[in-house]
Write a structure and sequence with these properties.
Length: about 90
């Protein structure tokens, strides 16, 4: 169940160049299975962060731009939904 503050989406930052989803959804922590409900912008940013993380961990491609964008994405996500941040990314 969503409360009033969750219905207001924090706008995605101008630098964001990932996919922008029309709907949110439930995401589970990849280690614990604990769920978090995300709105469309939060889900878009979460997938961007996880995609950056996958590229950085599984390939030899480690550009400073990608690292910086992932950090900015994490900061944005932390401020947009602190509870989901603690569940999914902390």
């Amino acid at each position: 169940m969503m409360d009033t503050k969750e219905k207001v989406q924090k706008p995605l930052p101008k630098w964001f160049n990932g996919d922008v989803y029309p709907k949110g959804g439930t995401v589970e922590n990849i280690f614990t299975g604990e769920p978090a409900e995300l709105n469309a912008n939060e889900l878009s940013m979460y997938d961007f962060i996880m995609g950056c993380n996958m590229i950085l961990e599984r390939t030899n491609f480690a550009s400073q731009k990608l690292v910086n964008e992932m950090r900015k994405g994490i900061d944005w996500f932390r401020s947009a939904n602190p509870s989901a941040y603690m569940t999914l990314l902390d």
